[in-house]
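Design a sequence for this backbone.
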């Protein structure tokens, strides 16, 4: 059989149809597995990727869980090699970069970009299986100077020390800070420890004319703002 007469793989037509469907409204009505398929087209060019996409959905549940999965978890799926896993993780990294840049250099961050701030914090730490405390350091116009992970804890506790927070704020020349930490359980209700440490950091910052604007507890689907609830 000549090269010209070789049967065209059935998935080639499917790929073209899916691309055309995407162009109609840029994938707004795509199911999660279709979006994963489209991504895999470029990562795995010579294979029917629909079964792989459906295996990923079956294993992880949805698009968000897939890109939040570890490299090791992704390559446990038949058909996903390290290169493909890195390609999928790239979407996680790209989204974090996009969200961070959406809040950088914005004056009055808590007023003008609060929703973007919540999205950024959720994307960076809400999917972690242990509690992580992040501190956002702001200048006198409440623009973001730097954000840093202050500590990593257990599934239901993380330690944060007011002295270390204040020292780092002074090192960076920050005029204000925002505390953020996640609750892996999904329940964003503050614990007694959350309330106590917020009070300690508030008082420690006050002594150096540093403003604690807020303490935000974040989960995959919800958040708690100490400021909004009148606790600061």
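Sequence:
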């Amino acid at each position: 059989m000549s090269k010209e007469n070789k049967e065209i793989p059935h998935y080639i037509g499917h790929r073209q149809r899916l691309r055309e469907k995407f162009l109609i409204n840029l994938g707004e009505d795509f199911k999660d597995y279709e979006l994963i398929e489209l991504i895999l087209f470029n990562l795995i060019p010579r294979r029917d990727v629909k079964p792989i996409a459906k295996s990923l959905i079956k294993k992880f549940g949805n698009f968000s869980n897939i890109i939040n999965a570890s490299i090791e978890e992704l390559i446990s799926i038949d058909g996903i090699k390290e290169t493909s896993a890195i390609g999928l993780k790239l979407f996680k990294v790209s989204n974090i970069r996009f969200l961070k840049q959406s809040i950088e250099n914005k004056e009055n961050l808590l007023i003008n970009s609060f929703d973007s701030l919540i999205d950024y914090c959720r994307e960076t730490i809400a999917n972690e299986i242990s509690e992580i405390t992040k501190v956002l350091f702001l200048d006198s116009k409440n623009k973001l100077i730097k954000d840093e992970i202050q500590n990593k804890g257990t599934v239901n506790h993380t330690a944060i020390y007011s002295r270390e927070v204040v020292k780092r704020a002074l090192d960076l020349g920050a005029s204000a800070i925002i505390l953020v930490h996640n609750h892996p359980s999904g329940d964003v209700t503050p614990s007694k420890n959350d309330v106590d440490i917020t009070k300690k950091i508030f008082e420690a910052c006050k002594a150096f004319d540093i403003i604690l604007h807020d303490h935000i507890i974040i989960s995959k689907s919800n958040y708690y703002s100490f400021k909004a609830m009148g606790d600061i």
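DSSP finds ten helices and five strands in the chain.
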